Amino acid sequence: MSPLPVPTTGKPMGSRRPSLRLAVAGALLVLLALVPVFSHALGQSFYVTLVSRMMIFALAATGLNLVMGYGAMVSFGHALYIGLGAYAVGILSQHGIGNGWLHLAAALGAGAVLATLIGLVCLRARGVGFIMITLAFAQMFYFLAVSLKQYGGDDGFSIGGRSDFGVVDLNDNVVLYYVIFAALVAALFLFYRLVHARFGMVLKGCRTNERRLEALGMPVARVKLAAYVLSALVCVLAGVLLANLTRFVSPSYMHWVVSGDLIVMAVLGGLGTLIGPVVGAILWLTLEDLLSSFNLGWAVLDDFVRNHWLGVLGLMALLVALRLKDGIYGILVAREQGDRP
Fold first, then answer.
1. What pLDDT does residue 328 have?
2. Of 70, 167, 223, 246, whose CB count within 10 A is highest?
3. Cβ distance 122 to 115 under 8 Å?
């Protein structure tokens, strides 16, 4: 009897090293969980608010990544859903309704209906057509928000108090921080389960060869629509949290520039990876904060960077896109898998 063949590729059993990307992801989540502790020790409560904002945009970028990173559907209108969540909180608060559960239900309900209707329209197109339709819808609702003079119009309006969830007191910045952190972790866990389920396999298959999946009888249209609605609802949740963090609502939340920022965050961290958008959002907003207040003691250089920080930030993003095509975190995934995710 001939011996069993010995595999010539892959790592020998028992010699597998710990995954670097999992170690980085775990370390990042632990650091985020400990930010309030470090902030209290340093006596700098500002960091709690700053990182809360980073996690909110990381949550929105994670939602966008579901359709763009796994389904190859580049949406230039996901800022619409951030604004929708924020306006649901703001408008209800303006009319004396402070119950947080009603805020959340109204935001998610309106988001689900709107995303379904928009999805049914925009998913009929592909490529540039899909991008332009999502952008058009977002700008339509942006100008609608600008026209609402009773709610501040272009200037937006302030919210008297944060959503009241009963036991959870969002008026405490640390409590709000951990609510945002919990929402981000929950979204990551949900997407992890989805991506590794049959749903995720079909969605990733759409990125490779959608026609072949349709020929095999896969419910491609339903999967893409479900992914679009789910990604939109995550952005709606981010909008609800953003309104509570800033206690302010503005049409600028819906502007196409915000949608562009979400795309850059996802690409910068690594499309098609779970933690990539989180890394991208934190890095992008950290650079934005550092460059806008740049100060090395060299007057000419400091003035140039502070006055043109958007250009410097764009140049950095361009260099990353050219040198690290898989993104900051995505390069770890690509190296471990031997190909792009």
1. 84
2. 70
3. no
Residues 6 or more apart whose Cβ sits within 8 Å of residue 197: none
Question: Token digits for 326?
Answer: 């898989």
Q: What is the pLDDT of residue 220?
A: 86
User: How far is 229 from 136, CA to CA, in rounded Å?
Assistant: 17
| 8 A C-beta contact, residue 76 and residue 260 | yes
Which of 81, 32, 80 is CA-nearest to residue 53?
A: 32
What's the CA gap between 259 and 30, in Å, rounded?
28
Q: Are 142 and 258 in contact (CB under 8 A)?
A: no
Residue 5 covered by a domain: no
Q: Residue 206 in 3-state DSSP?
A: helix
Domain carrying residue 205: 37-255
Spell out where the chain has E strands: 157-158, 164-165, 168-169, 248-249
Query: Cβ-count burial of 306 within 10 angstroms (0-12 exposed, 13-18 middle, 19+ buried)?
Result: middle
Question: What are 51's two structure tokens?
Answer: 């990182």
Domain-located, residue 224: yes
State the pLDDT at residue 266. 92
Q: Which of 158-172, 229-243, 288-302 has the lowest mean pLDDT?
A: 288-302
* Residue range 11-70, pLDDT digits in tens: 444 444 557 788 888 999 999 999 999 998 988 888 999 999 999 999 999 999 999 999
Separation CA 167–CA 182 (nearest Å): 16
Picking from 15, 20, 6, the residue whose alpha carbon sits closest to that of residue 337 is: 20
**Amino acid identity at 143:** F
How far apart CA 136 and CA 141 sit, in angstroms, is: 9
Domains in the chain, number: 1
- The residues with which 165 forms a beta bridge, in sequence order, are 168
In a domain, 157, yes or no: yes
Cβ neighbour number for residue 159 with a 10 Å cutoff: 21
